[in-house]
Predict the structure.
Amino acid sequence: MNSDSMEQTALTRETVSVWKSCLSKIKDNVTQMTYNTWFLPIKPLEFSNSTLKVELPSQFFWEWIDEHYNALIRNTINDVIGQDAKLEYVIVEETASGLDVPASGKTRVAVEEKPHERKIVKKDFESFLNPRYTFENFIKGEGNQLARAAAGAISDNPGGTSFNPFFVYGGVGLGKTHLIQAIGNDIVNRFPEKRVIYLSSDIFTVEFVEAIQANRVNEFSGFYRNMDVLLIDDIQFLIGKEKTQDLFFHIFNTLHQSRKQIILTSDKPPKNLKGLNERLISRFQWGLSADIQPPELETRIAILKRKAEDYGMIISTGILEYIAMNIKSNIRELEGCLIKLLANASLNSKEITLDLVRKTVKEIATDRKTNNITIDSITKVVCDYLNIGENKVRDKTRKKEIVQARQLAMYLSKELTKSSLKTIGLHFGGRDHSTVVHACASIEKAKENDSSIREMIGNLKNQIELNAV
Ligand code: ADP
Ligand code: MG
C-alpha cells in the first residue's frame, strides 16, 4: 500500500464517522420516512479543513434538501464539526447510458450561499424564513379560511390589528409553518425595514440554554425584544420548560406593549396546553386563535395539482384524484406522495402509472403506521386487552398474568417497531436485553403450541395497527 492510498483510507474513515454523527442528529429531528428518503441516500465523500463533501443522487434531491432542511443541516454540521463547518454537495447526474457519474463542476457550497434570496436591506441577523413558503402557493380551502384571512390582514398591517398574538393551531402537516412563514416573507418583502425572525420554540430553548451557559441572557433576550415581528413555531415544546417560559413571557410582554407582532403555532389550542404557565396561556388568548383543519377532497386535489405543476410533473387528473382520495389528513403526506412518485419516475425513468401510484400510496400508509406504533402504544393495547394496569408491566411483579402481558408487549415491540432489544428492555422497568430475548422466545413457542395465543396476537396486532392510522 503506498502512502497515498493509506491517507485515503484514514481520511475515509474519519469522513464516514463525521457523517454518521451528523446522521444520528438528523435522525432525531425528522420522521423516519424523511430520514430514509432524503438522508440515507446521501454518501459522504471527503472531509478536510472543516469541509464535508457529500454526494447526492440528483439535482432534484439537492433542491429538495436545500429547500426543506437547510437549517437542520446547518445546525447539525455546526454541532458536529464546529462553527466554521461547510458542507459541499456533489450531484450525480443520470447519463444517457444510465450510468451514474459525478457531474464535474457541479459542486455547490450549500448553506452559505442563497443566491435566490432578495437582499433589500442589509440586516445584522438572519430571519430564517424559507422563501418558498408564500401566500401565493398556499392553497385556500375551508379548513384554513379563517387562518389564511387573518394572516393576510396581519401582513397588511403588522402589529396594528387586534390579531396580536396570532395563534395558529392544528394537526401535523396541515400548513401551520407554511402559513406563518408566508406572513413573514410577505412582511419582509413589503416592509423591508421591519425586523422579522422565525424560529421554533425548541431552537429558542436551545439558544436560551446556551445564553445561560455563556452568561449572555440579557443579550439574548434583548435580541428578541428588538424584533418587529416574532414568529415562534410549535410553542407546545415549551411545556415543562419553566425557565424558558418565564423568559418568553417577558419578551412577549415587551413586544406586545410596543405593538410588535407576535405569531405562534401549536398542535393544540391555547387552553389545552397543559403544563404551560397559566399567564402565558391567558396571553395567547388575547389576540386571535385560528385553527387549521384537514383539507376536504377538492382542496386536496387543488393542492396536488398545484404541487405537481410546481415540480413540472405531468399527471392525469384521475391519478391526482386517486391520491387525494387515499391520503386524507395530512398535506405533507400528499406532497410526500408526489415526491416519491417523482423520485421513482425520474430515477428509473418510469412512467407514472396507476400501479405505481397505488404502490406509493401504500408505502406512505405503511410509513405512517411504523411511525405511529411505539412501545408505549403497544403496551397500552396489550394492557387494555388483558385488563391490566399499564404500570404493572413495568413493575417487578412476577404474577403469571402480568408476566404474560409483559412478554407479549415485549414481543410485539420487537415485531412492530424498530427499537433495539436494549430500548425495549428499558421501557419495561429497565430490564436487561436478555430478558427481552427470553420473552420473545417464550411467545414464539406459545404461538406454535397454542392456537388461542395465535389468535390473541392477531387481534392485538390488528388493534395496534388500527390505533396507528
Ligand atoms: P405543519 O407546520 O402544520 O406541520 P407545514 O406548514 O410544514 O405543516 O406543511 C406541510 C407541507 O404541506 C409543506 O410542504 C407545505 O408547503 C404544504 N402545505 C400545507 N398546507 C398547504 C396549503 N394550504 N397549500 C399548499 N401547500 C400546503
Ligand atoms: Mg410545522
